[in-house]
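--- STAGE predict ---
source: upstream dedup step, 1 unique chain passed
mode: sequence only
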Amino acid sequence: MTAFPNLIDGRAIAAQVLAELQPRIRALHDRGVQPGLVFVRVGEDPASKVYVGRKEKAAAELGIRSHTHVLPETTTETELLALLERLNRDETWHGILVQAPLPRHIRPERVYSTIRPDKDVDGFHPLNMGRLLLGDPGGFVPCTPAGIQELLVRAGISWEGAHVVILGRGNIVGKPLAALLCQKAPRANATITLCHSATRDLAGHCRRADILVAAMGVPEFVRAPMVRPGAVVVDVGVNRVPDPARPGGSRLVGDVAFAEVQPVAGRITPNPGGVGPMTIAMLMQNTVRAAEILTG
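--- STAGE serialize ---
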């Protein structure tokens, strides 16, 4: 992470967050409580396997107990919801995470609204989303938006008064990030422009950003002419593109054309090694907090 002086090292900052959780986990262990995080994965999506594996590894390293329920692609929505109800009642699990994407026949909104709000460490239950919109600190914030906020704060970048342009209005990143950063609160108080596929003069909006967050899922969409010199650029995208020179014939790229944009940006997140580690760190933080709340 030292090749470019303007890189924001997500791995190093995530390590700081995880280190700060260790005394809290030890305090729980001293009370006979081992934080428990249960994953549910439906189908054999290769990326989902990798993501859950990374989360399991982080949990094990911290002393958080975890388990993954792997369900076949043909699992019905009713069967999945029944499993979630059982996990809701099982007090040994303090956090429940259903890995996206889900098969097309399963409605994500039904899944997220079935998980108990106080075990919803992904932050997608309607109650937690509502609390986020209202600025209520009692809920769980979705992990990627929380990770982006924490990443820049710890990198010495202030959101206060900044013009933040978010590319993408999805329910996982774009909308909750806008709700998080527009709050009249410390570590927020930004001016938000939320762009999407129907936005007129999209490049013009991008060039006016102090902080540009790319989260639309389009490979290398953000190019150098779209970035104001000195702006902060945060790349959230994970996209697989063909590459015959690589094993498997493909490679992963972000939503930002890094080689073009890095020389222009004041600060920039690498991809990988930027937002991804922070998402996992915030999931662990939410899980520890859930265990503290549920075991009082």
